[in-house]
Amino acid sequence: MKRGFTLIELIAVIVILAIIALITTASVMGLFNKTKSSLYETQVEIVESAAKKWAIANNGFLPTDGSEYALQLSKLVTDGYLDDGDIVDPRTEKEMNGYVNIIYDNSINQYKIEFINLSNAGLTKEYVLNNVSLVTEGAGLYDDKNKTGRYYFRGKNPNNYIKFNNEIWRIISIESNGTLKIIKETGFNHVFDEIGSRSIENANSACAPYTMGCPIWAKNGTTILKNSELLTYLNGSYYDKLNKYKDKIVTGQWCYRHISTGGTSASDFLEDEFFDFCGTTVTNGKVGLVSIKEIKDASLGTCGYMKNCQNNYLNNGTEYWTLNYSYDALIMDSNGDIISMNASNTAVNARPVLYLKSDLELSGKGTGTNPFIIK
């Protein structure tokens, strides 16, 4: 006599089939979304390639002073470099929301092309502001009164920890465009410039007075024809080692202006206007160093002219290079003082600084035990 299924057995079979269906659906959807993301990345490459061709053909009116040029996608279509279908986002089947940023990098004598996605612009900034309260005294996040929409951290231990490249970094500032400027918490030994690397013999005339290595960050195309060894390393070998994290970084501007130590008063040094004009001492790149101005801004209490910047999270008890120079390279020492140092010194640390994209999704609270983490 044949035996039928009991009700419990039928329910069990139905549940198992439902679970299998859910797993299969999730797998298929995951693969589908991954394919769409891959198609989007290819689309971005097509747009950037077209923009590069456009820039070559139109370089006569593009800026060469380090300022940015925003090239609209519609312009690429109108000028015949792209078709209408080339600017459709395969993930949404709508027009891509963004533009191509074109900026001249005088350190390599060419334009850098990068598509800026505006779909989630401000997402990073919004998350940090929602998790770190603004303060007007003590350690914390401050509103920059001189630049609308910009914020910076001050004090000995504010909640500005962020995990990047599986390492702990600190957020220096939230820029007006929504990017995060971060600095590696611990550094590594690296010379700023070797003795004779950029001497008068190889046409770097501005470096000739410096007999112990040249302290000038980047070439300017006239009196400095080579970049510093530290710039070359950070934007070359070091940047390449970031692997999968490189797509989280955007090109930034780095002001490495000279600071006169003769006759400049403490009050002048502390004025924001002191660093407003960079002139030709500005370059673009993925990785840079912290500036004296940023060290000053991060300090609470007394931080006179190059002295006693101790109440400051940037003072990590080591000596490290800054972007600026005087009669030699300028470093922050373990006491919180800004002092001159031979650019060829092998005992000074390099602490990389970079800008993170404005559309990153974050988790965490920014504390030492629960840092911000990029999802």
Total discrete domains: 2
- Class by SSE composition: alpha+beta
Biggest sheet details: 10 strands, mixed
Mean pLDDT: 84
| Total beta strand runs | 22
What's the number of helices?
6
* Spans where pLDDT lies below 50 across 5 or more residues: 262-275
| First-residue to last-residue Cα separation | 60 Å
Helical residues, percent: 10-25%
- How much β-strand is present in the residues? 15-25%
N-to-C series of helices and strands: HEHEEEEHEEEEEEHEEHEEHEEEEEEE
Provide the gyration radius in Å: 25 Å
Overall body shape: globular
What's the topology here?
Layout lengths: L6 H51 L10 E5 H6 L9 E2 L4 E2 L2 E8 L4 E8 L5 H9 L8 E4 L7 E4 L6 E4 L2 E8 L5 E5 L3 E2 L39 H12 L8 E2 L1 E4 L10 H5 L11 E4 L1 E2 L3 H7 L21 E6 L3 E4 L5 E4 L7 E2 L2 E4 L5 E2 L8 E3 L1
Parallel strand pairs: 8-22
Antiparallel strand pairs: 1-4, 2-3, 4-5, 6-7, 7-9, 8-9, 9-10, 10-20, 11-19, 12-20, 13-14, 15-20, 16-17, 17-18, 21-22
